[in-house]
């Protein structure tokens, strides 16, 4: 005999979205032609949903989407996940780069950010002689 719990499980729970946003905004970072390139997946978002800020050497990329339905229908939803609020952000340390040198392009759900490499500071080391 099967436990009665099986008959009362919600079929739709198998489709429950993950509780964490670790699957969102996956990115690859690589170096090319003296620049760092960040390619980030942001599927299902529009350019207007993306915000980028540079503060104290950190580039913060955030996405935010709020879906509101103004439709009036006679549907009785068992689960409604497509009309929701989503917010996620990632930060990257890029150093003291002027914001006008950071370029971004959004195409087909992929945000591509180009950041010039910060020039290495030359050490201005002076040797001090010790007298006998």
Structural account:
The protein has a 4-stranded antiparallel sheet with strand order 1-2-7-6, with no helix packed on it. It has a 3-stranded antiparallel sheet with strand order 3-4-5, with no helix packed on it. It has a domain at 18-68 and 82-116: Sandwich (Immunoglobulin-like), CATH 2.60.40. The protein is built from 1 helix and 7 strands; from the N terminus they run αβββββββ. It is elongated and about 95 Å long. 3% of the residues lie in helices and 37% in strands. The protein is mainly beta and 132 residues long. The chain has one helix at residues 5-8, and strands at residues 27-32, 35-41, 50-55, 58-66, 85-93, 103-107, 110-116. A hairpin with a 2-residue loop joins β1 and β2.
Low-confidence stretches: 4-12, 14-19
CATH architecture of the domain at 18-68 and 82-116: Sandwich
- Structural category is mainly beta
Largest sheet strand order = 1-2-7-6
Q: Would you tell me the overall average pLDDT?
A: 80
The ordered string of helix (H) and strand (E) elements is HEEEEEEE
Please report the total strand number as a whole number: 7
Tally of helical segments: 1
Please summarize the sheet with the most strands.
4 strands, antiparallel
Put the structure in a nutshell.
With 132 residues, this protein is mostly beta strands. The chain is built from 1 helix and 7 strands; from the N terminus they run αβββββββ.
Features:
single chain; 132 residues; mainly beta; Immunoglobulin-like; 4-stranded antiparallel sheet; 3-stranded antiparallel sheet; 3% helix; 37% strand; elongated
